[in-house]
GpW (Wenxinia marina DSM 24838), 73 residues
Amino acid sequence: MALTLDQLTKSRDALIAARSDGVRRFRDQNGEEVEFKSDAEMARALAALDREIATLAGRPAPTALHFTTSKGT
């Protein structure tokens, strides 16, 4: 079963709140409990949620970055 955009957003918000509180054990909306081994693992989970949200919202992830530089005025 695919999650809706609203469900993904709520999961992302809850994970951000848990991460900012320093909590590594997280219970999602379905009651499933996940324990992250590190902050980096939580960051990867958030990035995955962000990609899913962007895909469902019709905003594909950028594939290129463009830098503008100058020597000053």
Notes: Residues 39-56 form the longest helix (18 residues). The longest strand covers residues 25-27. The chain has one domain: 5-56.
